[in-house]
Amino acid sequence: MKLKISFLGILIAALLMCTSFSAEAALGTDWNNNKITVTGSGVVPHGAHGAQARLLARRAAQADAYRQLAEVVKGVQVDAQTTVEMAMIQSDTVNLQVSAVIQGARIVSENFTTDGAYEVTMELPMFGRSGALASAVIERPAVVEPFPQVSTKVTVEVKGGYTGLIIDCRGFRVNPVMSPVIKNAHGEKIYGHKNLDYDKVIEYGMASYASSMSEAVRAGSNPLIIKAVDVEDFNANPVVSMADADLILSENQLSRFLDNTSVVFLY
Fold it and tell me: Which of 17, 76, 130, 167 has the fewest Cβ atoms surrounding its Cβ within 10 A?
């Protein structure tokens, strides 16, 4: 495998030689709002003054933020078995696209701190119309697969009018992923990105992850709430009972909340 050195890597290396910056990170992946935020810190080089000092400290802080973004992004789970870093290793195209996405991260705030360091906070969306991580790592399926048929062995009461779906996975230590799957108790997939409009998946994502009902706004004001019975595939994919799987599929035929990706996992 050939070693790839990006422009971003050269920039960071050059800045490391001319000035120092903090290795401490204020970073995180917000799976409820599907975004990654990091704060880079840079200090004024010895002997620099005025506008030049501010500029060099800002550049160092930006380089620190880019470095942190690269680290966080590589660790993001695309699906149950693949991280972004694994996808980058497997494909030169994905590698280039992810690098471009990182370089396109936007600055949301910047300022000098009370101790004289310069801080730059950057934000990278995991989903969106442009500049989002999803477009680089989630592959467009050859065809859109229909949702599976409702089982004829289970009878469920269908009400209609649900605005979304909440799968309560609390207690199972769910591992958030960009492309989750919901399975029934027989191991059959009832919800995955191949069932959905690809452009909608890239723009909005397939689900959000919330720690409480109050945070589960993606599912709307009248969600169908289902308790998971298990999680599989490295704790990434929730499993629901056969009756609940049929209820989800039946209600979706009326309300289309799966098609609209109005799905929240409580974890």
Answer: 17
Cβ partners under 8 Å of residue 163, min gap 6 = 219, 220, 221, 222, 223, 255, 257, 262
Give the whole-angstrom CA distance, residue 20 versus residue 107. 20
Strands 35-42 and 182-184, bridge-based pairing: unpaired
Which pLDDT band holds residue 28 (cuts at 50, 70, 90)?
confident
Strand runs labelled E in 103-218: 106-112, 118-125, 164-168, 182-184, 189-191, 208-210
> Could you tell me if 156 and 250 are in contact, meaning their C-beta atoms sit under 8 angstroms apart?
yes
Helix spans in the chain (H):
7-18, 50-75, 84-90, 92-103, 134-137, 198-204, 242-255
> Which range (76-90, 150-164, 176-190, 199-213) has the least confidence?
150-164
Token pair, residue 69, equals 């973004």
CB 159 within 8 A of CB 215: no
For residue 83, give every residue at least 6 positions away whose Cβ sits within 8 Å of its Cβ, in sequence order, or none. Answer: 74, 75, 76, 77
87 Cβ neighbours under 8 A, 6+ residues apart: 78, 94, 98, 137
| CA-closest candidate to residue 82, choices 67, 98, 66 | 98
